[in-house]
Amino acid sequence: MLEVKNISKVYKSSGVETKVLKGISFSINDGEFVAIIGPSGSGKSTLMHILGCLDSPTGGQYFFEGKDVSQLSDDELADIRKKKIGFVFQSFNLLPRATVLRNVVLPLIYTNISKGEREEIAKKSLNSAGLDETRFHHLSNQLSGGEMQRVAIARALVNNPAIIFADEPTGNLDSKTGEVVLETFKSLNEQGRTVILITHEKYIAEHTKRIISLKDGEIVEDVINHR
Amino acid sequence: MFITDLFEETYFAIYANKVRSILTILGIVIGIGSVIAMISIGQGAAGSIESSIQSMGSNLITVMPGFQKSFSQISAGRGSAQSLTIEDSEAITQEVPGVLAVAPEVSQRYQVVAKGQNTNTQIVGTVYSYPQVKNIEIALGVFISDQNVRSMSKVAVLGPITRDDLFGENTNPLGQTVRINGINFKVIGVTQSKGGTGFGSQDDVVFIPITTAQKFLAGSNFVSTISVQAESDQAMASVQSAITNLLLRLHNIGDPQMADFSTLSQQDIIESASSITNTMTILLAAIAGISLIVGGIGIMNMMMTTVTERTREIGLRKAIGAKRSDISLQFLAEAVMLTFLGGAIGIILGSALAYGIAFFTALPAKISLFSIILAFGVSAGIGILFGYWPAQKAAKLNPIEALRYE
Q1: What residue of B is the nearest CA neighbor of A114?
Q2: Using a CB-CB distance cutoff of 8 angstroms, which residues of chain B are in contact with residue A48?
Q3: Which ipTM value was assigned to this complex?
Q4: Are B207 and B130 in contact (CB under 8 A)?
Q5: pLDDT of residue B261
Q6: B392 in contact with A at a CB cutoff of 8 Å?
């Protein structure tokens, strides 16, 4: 499904080079549930940005479904994100003053799917994300944190992506709601979706089936998690 | 992305910032409104000047004496020479084809006295064809007849303003006597009012037979102008050149450059008058246009703020697959929508302003389709011009940094 070969990322700022990723290689297969874990500054966010086609590595190769995407242009990357990738962010990033439904439909406006179909798809996604149907026409800023994150998950699902990236999805939630959200990811994975969770908390990573640990831009551990 | 999506996104974005959007488009409203009002007033003024020139008579050609050059080469100005006579006018009537009527005139200002009232007005000595040539109608009595001219009768036809000044408003002065330069004239008619706009009022005037004017007032055989009415619009040019050739021959002048007279067609006057009003209109519209530019900068300012405020949203849109062009199109559409709304409201307010000014003052207003199309075009153009930079700024945002933006 995706494979990185010796990728590195170097940031240059006012003449000073910072090596964030130092030659990382691994591959993830279809249907895996993976946690990328590491303390802050370990490079896990940068790795997620590269894996999520938001950024390009400065060295190495990245194969997404067998295609080398490490040297693509901004718009080509946008096209991959549109068709293949769903994102869930720590701070939800919902459009304020917009209804739940409009938030979920949003990714589809950049496609050629007709308006009537879009709503159907959005409602299906909201159902799989476990949001109550009575909430569909509420404004996003009237929801609780857990509901907001489920709207965000529904939005990530709406384009039927091959892979879902979740960047600290429980970071802004209390532990009980966080647990519910993690259950949602688990059931999505059980339905056959590939899910990659980025976190710095060991106990959250424990929910997944495979844990890749990063430190100072290098993989220190890559283990199967037998719960 | 469908065009309807673009409209929907634009609508939501503008609706989310109602007050700020309204305040921002106010600049465009004022700009477009004043451009529309200025152009309407300018074109209305041009129309009114044109119609007042038309009202002097249709298909009119005026022959005037040329410069009078003394030996010292000092020119006393056009029209100062005494070179035209009644014979010239008769020759035009007889020899130039396509002429409908000819009216020579002698005019000068005199003090006119009647019943203890007096006024200083234009005394026009002319012939019976004058009303036809100059589009004048008789309200009371009759105009000067051919008989009056031949017998040098001391009769006068008053303009309505002169009548008002001498005898009181809307009185009937027929049969009364007016004194011009110490000579008594019997009033035989009053002309219809033509409305006093344009070049001097044609209502403040006294008409007397041309022969009487030449003999008792001017004391010479010369005439001040000859007005010629051509049969049709098409005949104007040929009549004008035929008159020129005839008079050159009669005055024994070989070189047209040395002509002691000049001819002026109504078309010439309308053209020069409309070039003046056009210049005025452009000037007024240009001043109003400056406020449009200020309005456009207001739009740009708001779009810049919007882009900064919605950095996270832009980041999200990019993360879920929006291309650069999708983002720039969205913000450009917002800017154009704002200016378009401003333009539409501006057209309505500008038209209302123009009609208001027309209603409360003498200035007429004429709202043309052209100025409305121009205003719409300009407002859309301003949206694109001043929305382009903010839209590019939004499109170039790095999605990662945009998502992190606090």
Answers
A1: B2
A2: none
A3: 0.92
A4: yes
A5: 86
A6: no
